Amino acid sequence: MSPRLALLCAALTLPLAAPALAGDCTVYEGARVHLPEGPRDGFSVVVLDGRVADVGSNLGLAPAPGGLLFRDRTCTLVKLAATDVITPGLVTVGGQLGLVEVGMEGATRTHDAGGDEVRAAHVVANSYDPRSSVIAVQRIQGITSAVVEPTGGMIAGSSAWVDLLGATQAETVIATSVAMPGAVVTPSPSEGLRRLSELFDDARRYAANRRAFEENRSRPLVASRLDLEALQPLLAGDVPLVLGADRASEIEALIRWSEDEGIRLVIRGAAEGWRHAAALAEADIAVIINPYVYGPGSFDQREGRADNARLLSEAGVDVIISTSSAHFARGLRQMAGNAVRGGMDHTDAVRSITSTPAEVFGITDRGEISRGAYANLVIWSGDPLEISTRVKTMLIGGAEVDLTSRQTNLFDRYRELPGSPVPDLPLPGPSAVPAGG
Amino acid sequence: MLNRPRSLLFAALLLPVAALAGDAAAPASRAELDAAGRAPVEPVVEGPAPLVVLANATVWTADGDIWERGYVVLKDGRIFAVGEGDAPTVPAATVLDQTGKHITPGLIDTHSHLGVYASPGGKASSDGNESTSPTTPGVWAEHSVWPQDPGLERAVAGGVTAIQVLPGSANLIGGRGVVLQMVPHRGSRAMRFPGAPETVKMACGENPKRVYGGKGGAPSTRMGNLRSHRQAFLDAQHAMHEWDDWDEKAAKAGKGGKKGKSKGNDDSPKPPKRDLNTETLIGVLKGEILPQIHCYRADDMLSILQLADEFGFSVRSFHHALEAYKIRDVLAERQVASSTWADWWGFKLEAFDGIPHNAALLTEAGALAIIHSDSGIGIQRLNQEASKAYWTGRHAGIELTENDAIRWVTANPAWALGIDGATGTLTKDKRGDVVVWGGHPLSIYSSAELVFVNGRLRYDKQRPGQWSDFEVGQGVDR
To answer: Min CA distance, B337 vs chain A (Å)?
Structure first.
């Protein structure tokens, strides 16, 4: 088949304005590109077979009929404005995207295993619904991936990394266990930590004495067999434990405790984290923060401040900015923008919603634009953190994402009133056979 | 239509306190009795108003003009001059060059729970819902406002100069709201925005039926909601007729020169028994008290408009109003404002059809849109929220101006609170409620740098003060 015929066939089989398919090759040329080392102007990105094949300022690609030649492939050329910006797809961390439709309707919540305090074996990915209408509402604001979390108990289960394009769990769940969210349960942080230590101690004993356990020669353990098994990757430091803490003293205790336990810790909240920024950096403890400081919203946040993100980031702490929400995840870039308003370096703020989550949760081929990376990319009309900026194009695994959602559908429906109910239906066309014929 | 009730109310507020409280046997009218409950105790303290020229800034009047280079002159607490180009020479004025800065009217939030759900949050500071009965029109939010709420000063740092503090939405009729100017005082009453009408918070939909149905009581359904709404207004109507009769008789007795002369005057008609619940609703029926009604769904809002028609009152603003876009023709026609968010949605079923185009669509249809916060966090960045709603509309092809966007958080909320004659635009002789922004107010990177309330500098980003006693000695270091 000649290339022209192939093109023609492709044109015939694809619907109008078809999204680029994974497997295509496209060169996005001449924009500001956020690389791991920072933004670079006048750069181009080659997306080939769903991955970033190359990125650079002068790729020296030869023209070919219908585009540019990259290796032995003809690539579609998309010329971008110099003011356009390409970032890795944004990552929303925490929250229950795909696990809840309507927060206050219990029947639509699927993230809480209920029952025991320890639910380490709870794999929330099995509840993830990639066809939830909530997802596209967030996605069209540049969010390509999510770390979705189970809730409840002392150990809630495993968080999953999902990419936000696809209709099945098989297509969308990239990793079923990237972290274990838990809680320092009441009545006091000290008691909460004691109970976690007791659990971890039992889990270690269990692992060292599986045979005794199977032969019923074990003393009673505080969790079930499957839960104790599920904790092993956490105890080995392969996945982090995510605990919430805002108060400086509680953060200080958590740093010490996690070192004693030899586990990897991520702290969510950390409103007073800046007080222990150096120690957090030293202990390699990442934080998930919300830069909307309300001052003393609680007695745990008396010293919350607007430049928390800056202070943590400058001290070398891995900072993840997150809404920790399903329905409000689209506010991620506004949050990051507010961190910049509070003094955070702009590049660090972009990292905090792209590459840092990928690094912290061990997803090595996502979150940054580099050769070989999975092509989760967003092309913005300008500064991604500025409100006036819009998503021009976004790719997940190289596939172009349709920029509509249930909300844009409602907008279209009500663009002209009355919108709904729709007008009376016209009669169907006359019957082919005349009545009485 | 709107001036009549306001002028009535102003007249009541202007009466000397002594006349209201001094002679219990001789109340002049129902409205005066009501106003007596608002008599100030603590003196309202304001420093001398500076004479200041804010020069060379981009000036957003919120009244149609955005001048790339203009000025605002504040004098005696008021806007003395505002215009385009070179600032006038004002003898003895302090001239502050604001090149590169933007000036807007002070932002106004129609929906705040600052003070009634104060920081730090907890049981002791939960004063926003008198959820002991579904209809509590007799409670007043101002009696719950804790003026030391650290959230108040953070709102000012976001450019907010006036707020309406409302009871929560657990109740069908939650009680009176109160409009505050952002001037710290020891009691909330001294923070009342001078001359602002009374308001009342009502709610429809899920919250009341959940709260009371959950307790095994009424209402437990939407039809139960409306039954209770209607019954409350029927009771108020009945009481209103009694008061009207008395007002009439008292006025006649007054003409005879007998009124208020002595305690033993047998000719003085006895006033009806006072009832705080019906008094608030009579105020609504008389158009003196502006209804602020929490509703999400279009059909719920239509039910409330039906209630308003049945009893002959006007809804001033729906609040949250996520489906207002579906009935924007009706809302435009009736001049009902919609206080909404830029993009909140989905947390409950009645919020499932919220779309971020709401404010833009309302504005396009000629209905009054307002961006409110309902949040101690959102109130710190109302300008950003307006910006999101603006850009969502623009990107969707709706014709909007930046003037529209700034009005969502200034002039329009001022109207919904009945204080548009005093604030909400940069207009000569209005109050000096003015914000100087570090950059374009619709940019995410811009912060309020100077905030004037009633012509006095209330916030300076370079010299952040501290209002709240709570933070004294906490080591808080912003």
So the answer is: 18
User: With contacts defined as CB-CB under 8 Å, which chain A residues touch B478?
Assistant: 295, 305-306
Q: Do A390 and B344 touch (CB under 8 A)?
A: no
* A254 or B19, higher pLDDT: A254
Asked, for residue B316, whether it belongs to a domain, the answer is: yes
Please name the residue that has the structure tokens 């548009």. B420
Q: Which two tokens stand for residue A374?
A: 């999975």
* Alpha-carbon distance B138 to nearest alpha carbon in chain A (angstroms): 29
Partners of B344 on chain A (C-beta within 8 Å) are: 328
Which domain does A221 fall in, by range? 90-366
- Is residue A339 in a domain? yes
CATH number at residue B196: 3.20.20.140
Supply the pLDDT for residue A14. Answer: 39
Decide if B347 and A331 are in contact by the 8 Å CB cutoff.
no
The reply to whether residue A327 touches residue B345, judged by beta carbons under 8 angstroms, is yes
Interface test with B, best of A381, A411, A416 (most B CBs within 10 A): A411
CA angle centred on A88, ends A85 and A93, rounded to 5°:
130
Q: Does residue A9 carry a pLDDT above 80?
A: no
| Gap between the Cα atoms of B364 and A305, Å rounded | 39
- A387–chain B Cβ distance below 8 A for any pair: yes
* Closest-CA residue to A265 (of A241, A233, A293, A289): A241
- Scanning A130-159 for CB atoms below 8 A from B yields 134, 137
Give the closest-approach CA distance of B176 to chain A in angstroms. Answer: 25
pLDDT per residue as tens digits for the range A148-178: 999 999 999 999 999 999 999 999 999 999 9
Mark which of A342, A366, A390 sits at the end of a domain. Answer: A366
Is residue A437 one of the residues assigned to a domain? no
- The answer to the question of residue B57 being in a domain is no
What pLDDT, in 10s, does the model give residues B320-352?
Answer: 999 999 999 999 999 999 999 999 999 999 999
The residues, any chain, with a CB within 8 Å of residue A55's CB and separated by 6 or more, are A33, A35, A43, A44, A45, A46, A369, A370, A371
Q: Are residues A205 and A317 in the same domain?
A: yes
Phi/psi for A7 (5° steps) reads -60, -45
Structural domain contains residue A436 = no
pLDDT value at residue A6: 44
